Amino acid sequence: MAYFEELETWIYAKELTLLIYKLMRENRDYGFKDQLQRATVSIMNNIAEGSEYNTPQSFIKYLYIAKGSCAEVRSMVYLCKELNYCTEDQFQQLLSKCKIISSAINNHILYLKEITQNLKTS
């Protein structure tokens, strides 16, 4: 198992988090800003935390939580656009990153499930 800093899913989530923090830097809607930042940090932190457990099943649980947080961020990105907190280009970039992260997490879950299944049949 790699360190979480080497995981593609965590790297993508960190990049999204940095984008969100930069975008929200001057935003004065503190409730919205706080929720969006917490949700995006949740993605990367759940990937990191789950990776430190010694079983694929535990990691999968945390990846599902990260995937849920990613959906929350994606939902808030739509609000971000509707509230004019971001440009169309920023919206498209954030939405694209969220979808890539969600897909990467899903692929990671499928990979870990396959490992788990192979361990059961061995």
Task: Please tell me about this protein's structure.
By secondary structure, the chain is mainly α. The longest helix has 34 residues, at 88-121. It has helices at 8-24, 30-51, 56-82, 88-121. Helix 1 packs antiparallel against helix 4. 82% of the residues lie in helices and 0% in strands. It contains four helices and no strands. The two termini are 19 Å apart. The protein has a single domain (8-121), classed as de novo design (two linked rop proteins) (Up-down Bundle), CATH 1.20.1440.60. The mean pLDDT is 96.
Break the fold down into its secondary structure elements and pairings.
Blueprint: H1 8-24, H2 30-51, H3 56-82, H4 88-121
Low-confidence sequence ranges: none
Class by SSE composition:
mainly alpha
Q: In percent, how much strand structure appears in the residues?
A: under 5%
The CATH class assignment is Mainly Alpha
Name the helicity range: over 70%
CATH homologous superfamily designation: 23S rRNA-intervening sequence
Overall geometric form? elongated
Quick description:
With 122 residues, the chain is mainly alpha-helical.
Identify the notable features of this structure and list them briefly.
122 residues, mainly alpha, de novo design (two linked rop proteins)
